[in-house]
Amino acid sequence: MGRLFARVTFVPSLIFNIFMERVSSRRWFDRIDNRVILGALPFKSMTKQLVETERVRGVISMNEDYELKWLSNMKRDWENSGVKFLQLSTVDIFEAPCQEKLKKGVEFIQDFDKSDSDGLVYVHCKAGRTRSATLVACYLMAKYKLTPEAAVSHMQSVRSHIWLGPKQYEALHTYHNRLGER
């Protein structure tokens, strides 16, 4: 049921996101720290700006294939622009990314830190407020030794329309507990 609902509401909710960016203080993307940009679905027309102006060298998409197919770059398109790409497909609205995907995403970002690259990683889902925010919170917990609540609070101070529900917070607490076991 969740997967079907996510598909049916994709276009209307994307239109809503575009509308909100135009009429409110919401931005399409926000820099969370010196490594990560958290944002909404990057349209193909944004590629040049993201690569040249924002210095994006890595992209993590939390979207399913149907969300990327017509409007955004797929793996080959990003790679042709010199950008590494990782897709961690997660159903919108009712699901949180699984622990394996969260771990993979955080490691992808950490690889940029290890390489000493000055490039940024653009982490996105459709709206840049739930699926991608869950992953970015895990990155913040790992990098800065934050609690789940502190990580979310930091993101909300930069990107106020982030919304995490009970499933996302459960995923954050599980990830945080596993960090303590390492």
Mind explaining what this structure looks like?
The protein has helices at residues 2-23, 47-53, 65-68, 75-80, 99-114, 131-144, 148-158, 166-181; strands spanning 29-31, 36-39, 56-61, 84-87, 120-124. The protein has a single domain (2-181), classed as Protein-Tyrosine Phosphatase, Chain A (Alpha-Beta Complex). A hairpin with a 4-residue loop joins strand 1 and strand 2 (36-39). The protein is 53% helix and 12% strand. The protein is globular. A five-stranded mixed β-sheet has the order 1-2-5-3-4. It has eight helices and five strands. It is an alpha/beta fold and 182 residues long.
CATH topology group? Protein-Tyrosine Phosphatase, Chain A
Total beta strand runs = 5
CATH class: Alpha Beta
Rg, alpha carbons = 15 Å
Task: Identify the strand order in the major beta sheet.
Answer: 1-2-5-3-4
* Number of H/I helices: 8
Given helix and strand content, the structural type is alpha/beta
Could you spell the SSE succession in H and E letters? HEEHEHHEHEHHH
- Write the CATH homologous superfamily: Protein tyrosine phosphatase superfamily
Q: Can you tell me the residue ranges where pLDDT is under 50 for at least 5 consecutive residues? A: none
Helix content range: 40-55%
Domain Tyrosine-protein phosphatase: 28-181
Pfam families: DSPc (PF00782)
GO molecular function, one term: phosphatidylglycerophosphatase activity
EC number: 3.1.3.27
Q: What does the secondary structure layout of this molecule look like, with pairings?
A:
Layout: H1 2-23, E1 29-31, E2 36-39, H2 47-53, E3 56-61, H3 65-68, H4 75-80, E4 84-87, H5 99-114, E5 120-124, H6 131-144, H7 148-158, H8 166-181
Parallel strand pairs: 2-5, 3-4, 3-5
Antiparallel strand pairs: 1-2
Helix pairs in contact: 5-6, 6-7, 6-8
